[in-house]
Design goal:
- The chain is an alpha/beta fold.
- It has 2 domains: 10-15 and 48-193 and 381-459, Periplasmic binding protein-like II (D-Maltodextrin-Binding Protein, domain 2, 3-Layer(aba) Sandwich); 199-377 and 495-562, Periplasmic binding protein-like II (D-Maltodextrin-Binding Protein, domain 2), CATH 3.40.190.
- It has helices spanning 2-22, 36-52, 88-101, 115-124, 137-144, 153-158, 164-175, 205-210, 219-231, 233-237, 253-256, 258-264, 271-277, 289-301, 318-324, 346-353, 394-405, 407-415, 461-469, 477-487, 509-525, 531-562, and strands spanning 58-59, 62-63, 67-75, 103-111, 132-134, 189-193, 199-204, 330-334, 360-363, 375-377, 381-386, 422-424, 430-432, 453-454, 491-493.
- α12 packs across α14.
- It is globular and about 75 Å long.
Length: 569
């Protein structure tokens, strides 16, 4: 009890220190990682003790004595959805875990759009679920260094025989992705990303036809297309011409201009640079990124970009409503963004509210300096799954991850019940249908429950692709097939340098992301003559606030292991 109380106090103090640092004190501030030595000893001691604990006898995969665990689940705030912690799918999991392993499962909700902040607070309060999931590895590393996260390595090795389905799904690559090369610690395992298509560019196919235009094949073509949309607003929108939005955007600028950014990044960028600068997952620090933002700034000042995009935060529905109403000519987003969400989807509503032929199609329009439509996609890793130090049932928690990774279980969670959420097709694929009752999925393919996998996987690649293509209600499968075909064209995947912890990243993920989003938004809405000043000032603040320290430490880590080598094998 004394140790738990001590950890809780340490974590609370650390949260306060982190908040102070994030508020902009750049001189005289103490880095959160400067006092990590004593707490690292605490973490090591605690992990050793836990690894040796008897976590209960199992007979035929079932615990003799019932175990109880809690699992994090995102609340996306979807209108018309079911309670994320208590629904048809959580019942399936709860019943299955009790039946197969004698483990009682409860779900603890965390708001999706503020998950980093909320999860940090739960960890600081020693009140996090036993099984946690986040997109932010620095958050995990921060609390690991404070003794607030379990080292999964000893549990994974000792209980590997209990986890055949987890190992088959993730393979050594994803399980050991975050293993420290010197200490051997594993603070989190990486979910496996399937259907990795990244961010794609969409344009109104019907508008191109009305204007007798070919699909754009270069930045110049794309820009001319935007001007054509703007200049022909009355023909395209009639009485609503004043609502014309040639190109739409959100305050997550880096995400939303990602494919354009690829065209400005040099084609010969090295694995070294991708590692050193790749901690920002929007490519902010990649060479020549500024010029991509400059192009959007030019478009904004020419009236080609949604003028009000900076007024709305993530999760707001205003932009989506503009698209559904048929006012938007082009945008960049997740590879299936126009087609997802069934009757609430963009394409579905455009064809209902505007015209039957109103449709977004995927295009590949941005060549880099090598003349390639290069796309830099992340490695096949996704969310990070970890156990807080307060987890008293690490083995039962691993068994849970194995259970949801089992093909038949994850398939049910991903496609639901035949006749309610999918139809079985003659070729062995499935056609996803939108449920309207308690079987509604609150996220595509129930990714908030299948936390070891993101993306449809039916165990057969061909059937999976076929199912993906016909799995969007009211959408012609050809649009989906086209998206995945173009996503695989001239693609480059990230590699794992496996250089271990970067201490400068501790506690910086959320703070730096917010700074990036803010100054990129400000750069775009700035006048053309002020662009350089606004961008450079924002970038310098980003670097001064922790970005440069991360760069320097990553450079040192690379040089220590790889010397002057620039490409990984």
């Amino acid at each position: 009890m004394k140790r738990a109380k001590a950890i809780s106090i340490l974590l609370t103090c650390f949260m306060i220190l982190t908040m102070i640092t994030a508020c902009g004190s750049q001189q005289g501030s103490k880095s959160p990682n400067q006092d990590s030595a004593s707490t690292s000893d605490l973490s090591t001691s605690k992990d050793k003790n836990n690894a040796s604990e008897d976590n209960g006898e199992l007979v035929d995969g079932k615990f003799v004595e019932k175990k109880s665990i809690s699992v994090e689940v995102f609340d996306r705030g979807n209108d018309g959805g079911t309670p994320p912690e208590d629904n048809f799918y959580t019942d399936f999991i709860k019943e299955g875990m009790l039946r197969d392993h004698n483990v009682e499962v409860t779900f603890k909700i965390v708001p999706r759009w503020t998950e980093g902040e909320v999860l940090s607070n739960l960890l600081a309060a020693n009140d996090a679920p036993d099984v946690c999931v986040t997109y932010s590895y620095p958050t995990i590393q921060t609390y690991a260094n404070m003794g607030g996260v379990l080292d999964m390595a000893p549990y994974l090795e000792k209980n590997k025989d209990l986890l055949p389905d987890l190992w088959e799904l993730l393979t050594d690559d994803n399980i050991y992705w975050n293993q420290d090369p010197e200490k051997g610690t594993i603070w989190a395992i990486e979910a496996r990303l399937f259907n990795n298509a990244g961010v794609r560019t969409f344009v109104r196919e019907d508008w191109l036809k009305k204007l007798s235009m070919e699909e754009p094949e270069s930045i110049e073509d794309f820009e001319q297309m935007l001007y054509k949309f703007k200049d022909n607003a009355e023909m395209l929108l009639g009485d609503d011409a004043d609502k014309m939005t040639p190109f739409s955007l959100s305050t997550d600028v880096g995400w939303r201009i990602m494919e354009l950014a690829h065209a400005f990044i040099p084609g010969d960028i090295t694995d070294r640079d991708r590692y050193i600068y790749g901690f920002d997952d929007r490519y902010l620090l990649y060479p020549n990124y500024k010029e991509a933002v400059r192009k959007i700034n030019e478009w904004y000042n020419a009236g080609l970009v949604w003028k009000d995009f900076a007024l709305y935060d993530a999760g707001d529905t205003t932009e989506g409503n503009l698209m559904k109403s048929g006012y938007v000519g082009s945008y960049m987003h997740n590879s299936d963004d126009p087609y997802r969400n069934g009757e609430d989807g963009v394409q579905y509503n455009m064809q209902k509210l505007v015209a039957k032929d109103a449709a977004f199609k995927t295009v590949v329009s941005f060549k880099n300096d090598a003349g390639l439509y290069k796309k830099y996609l992340s490695a096949p890793v996704d969310r990070k799954v970890f156990f807080p130090a307060s987890n008293k049932e690490p083995v039962a928690s691993l068994v849970y991850l194995d259970w949801i990774s089992k093909l038949e279980n994850r398939m049910f969670l991903q496609i639901g019940e035949e006749g309610s959420t999918h139809e079985a097709m003659p070729d062995g694929s499935v056609k996803i249908t939108a449920a309207t009752d308690e079987k509604i999925m609150n996220s595509p393919n129930n990714i908030d429950y299948t936390i070891t996998i993101n993306g449809l996987n039916l165990g057969d690649p061909e059937k999976t692709v076929q199912s993906l293509a016909q799995g969007y209600a009211g959408v012609d499968p050809e649009y989906i097939t086209r998206t995945y075909d173009l996503s695989a064209y001239e693609v480059s995947y990230g590699k794992n340098a496996a250089l271990g912890e970067i201490k400068a990243e501790e506690g910086m993920g959320t703070a730096l992301s917010e700074k990036r989003n803010n100054f990129l938004t400000q750069s775009i809405v700035a006048s053309v003559d002020k662009f350089d000043e606004v961008f450079d000032t924002g970038m310098q603040d980003y670097l001064n606030s922790g970005g440069q320290a991360i760069i320097d430490e990553r450079k040192a880590a690379w040089e220590k292991v790889y010397s002057d080598k620039t490409m990984l094998d």
